[in-house]
Description:
The protein is α/β, with parallel strands linked by helices. The chain is about 15% helix and about 30% strand. The protein is elongated and about 100 Å long.
Amino acid sequence: MDKNNIxxxxxxxxxxxxxxxxxxxxxxxxxxxxxxxxxIKTSKEISNDISxxxxxxxxxxxxxxxxxxxxxxxxxxxxxxxxxxxxAMKNISPKNEKVLVLNGDMPLITPDALKGFxxxxxDIIMSIFELDNPNGYGRVIIENNQVLSIVEQKDxxxxxxxxxxxxxxxxxxxxxxxxxxxxLLSNENAQKEYYLTDVISMAKKxxxxxxxxxxxxxxxxxxxxxxxxxxxxxxxxxxIKTNWMDKGVTMQLPSTIYIEDGVKFEGECIVENGCKITGxxxxxxxxxxxxxxxxxxxxxxxxxxxxxHIRPASIIEDTHIGNFVEVKKSHLKGVKAGHLxxxxxxxxxxxxNVGAGTITCNYDGKNKYKTIIGKNVFIGSDTQLxxxxxxxxDVMIAAGTTLTSTTxxxxxxxxxxxxxxIVKDFYYKFFGK
Length: 433
Ligand code: UD1
Ligand code: CA
């Protein structure tokens, strides 16, 4: 496929009022990335000339996409004077003869699903599907196998409302169709908007070739409401998890597992039920047990959980992390931390055992400080490491010790304990017999 043959225009300027949100519709995330990100990513597989039409919250939309892409043309719609999907097409100037128009609220489209639009030679190719419940979609009026027009739901007659062939909302136009018909659109309709769909009836009257293309409803699903958003999330998650299972990841009850778009697995991994893995995490040759959350971290040759929380920027290698352990921005290599700990801003080296209840006190209310722990250290239960703390190799820390801003030298024992007192029969003196 030659990416220089086709231009893509993505419409992303609408308010998305049915989402009932202050956030622009196309910025709502699916599997950790904005809806618009997904459609741009797909578009880049088939074209080098991509324009995104923006208006509503345009600064936020542009900023969010510039995090990922540096070669997108953003075009501003004059939405006050020319509202609607036709108005959105007014200022575009695509480079190529063939122009694919996509909607920013269709995050499930795959490059494969767009191939049909590239292979057919026609003035207009329009996407359709058949629905038992066509509610909300533009109805496609077909007579003698010829598409005559698209009628929006709000403008449709009783008879037209019964039509079950609907406009999926994406099109391939030849450039001269756009140049000729977009300036001729009018807003004389129920919504007082310039409808891109009106191009169809105008082109038909002039005898142009209009080809309907039957597309997969699931892939061309438009997200208009929070319910649509959750439906699309289920479909996207299924796609992501199926891909990783195909590549050899074992998943227990995959329907209970959430894995974001940027996560990667390598080698042989097991993910148990109820886990959430986000950001750009990399999981290699590891076992992630039930109910564990891993955010933007690298896990290599380790077992984590059940019920552990690995927060961003952690690197965990050759390590065992047990239940109720929270790790943040720490590097653990060859460590055992079996139970109930907080390890933040720490680096812990090989052969070290972290006892239950060990806490790095990394924050003094103003700043964060580091805890550095060497090799073969035995950290007794209920140790507090008030950072900055350095513990050299081969150190033993007695249970219940508080280390405050200090360095413990190689081979030492560290212990802070008050002497045990036993006061005989104190209980009975206090409460009575
Ligand atoms: C549109 C179609 C409808 C089709 C449906 C399929 C029109 C008039 N109607 O309706 O026939 O069945 O898609 O999903 O085209 N947008 C702008 N500027 C605007 C308005 C919208 O850029 O002024 C963008 C939106 O951000 C969105 C896309 O265009 O990404 C579609 O807009 P939306 O309001 O969702 O159109 P529908 O009512 O779904
Ligand atoms: Ca829509």
